[in-house]
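Open question from group meeting: does this chain pack into something compact, or does most of it stay loose? Before anyone orders reagents, we agreed to write out a predicted structure and look at it together. Recording both the input and the output here so the notebook holds the full record.
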Amino acid sequence: MRERIFSLETEYGIAFLSERSGSEPTKETLVGAVRRALSEAVGLSESAFLMTGAKFYHDVGHAEWAHAECRSARQIALYDKAADASLAQVLPRAQELLREDGFRGRILIIKNNVDVHGNTYGCHENYMAERETAWLDHEDYLRLSVRYLVPFLATRLILCAPGRIGLGRRGEQGFAFQLGQRADFINAVVSRDTRDMRGIFNLGRENEPFSDGNHRRLHLILGDACMSGYGTFLKLGTVGLLLRLLEDLEIGAIPHLKEPVRAMHTVSRDPSCSALLPLYDGRQMTAIDIQRVYLEQVLRYAERHPISEEERELIGLWGETLDALQRDPSRLFGKVDWITKKSLLDRLLAHHGLSWTTPNLEAQPIRYKLQELDIQYHNVDPAQSPFYKLLRAQRGAEALDTLWDAESVRTAQITPPAYTRARVRGEVIASARRTGGRVEVKSWNEVRVGGQRIELHNPFTFFSVETYTLFKDGKPLNT
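Structure tokens returned:
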């Protein structure tokens, strides 16, 4: 497949810091206030969908931003950054709405993946993938995909993990730094569930939207949310490249991990990236070595097949990241979250004459400052997050990322991706906001305008004659 849909479902932690004692809003009430504020800014009161084609809603105790369908990894990384910016901007209005209901205080929206109670919430990845190839039926191709992607996914943490203090689900196994936040919650190689059995490779939801015909939805649940767009780009883009190789059956010998789940846990707890992982054939390799095997195969593929400029950029960044991890990780400061966060934590420790090897570090008063920094790093509010503070110190007062300028992010906050059905959903909402017309946007593949049903089964559909005709006069549709 040369054309592919990429998307994310980002789940945010949400909390309320009350100004006075008494009753506090439920999580559903908090998310509801944020949704109302978003609807006022870029949506419609009666729909969870927004002008960008994305969907924001409450889901089991957290806020979820289900992103619009995008045509590339770089594009979804931009829209993920724009979602963070939109949430930060509507916080004052959401707090005002809560005050009207008697709740005075401040909302915290944290883009991480684990809380202090040992609960985890995800950043799920979605890719359009082929259901079968000319040579392999669905089941055989699925087995091939699992076999070849698992070693890559288990070691991908070194490229895009956000970092975390604490070993074990509740930190019960030690007060130390690890790369991944979801890693300790992954307990299976393959799963269909997303809560009890969390797999490196997930087989669930493959028949959900954007899976018509020979297409399936590859739904990965092992990953963490990135503050850095660089990490999000690498996370999704590298998977997209490997899917190309698999679909063309041009992937060669790769190192098969003897115990993939244990290997993933080991990688997460090894900031040096030097731990040796046992392979089925008796050899041992580091996560960097395994990633290089995949990169070399992608490079050979690129010599034989046309690739896009974005894919060429991605391959270059992949190689540069592995080189830096091996030679000088500080070159990735501000780009790879776990390295950035660890550097900030290391500085705080050093300032107090301590290190990660200090005996009984968890008993030191500094523990609480370390944990606060660990959480605040993921605050979507640029005024509160150390991630944004260091970016702005390096790149200027408006900086939100290393890949895009502030204007690109602002544009992505109010416009849908141009060449998917998200554009139709987004433009229907934008038109209704301008004209006051009656529209319904309640699903990914259907909109209703003036009572007329318009189906959008093909995710690559970016223009609808019906909606254009209905809205072309710019008049409200109330019938």
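Observations to bring back to the group:
The longest strand covers residues 6-18.
The two ends are 42 Å apart (CA to CA).
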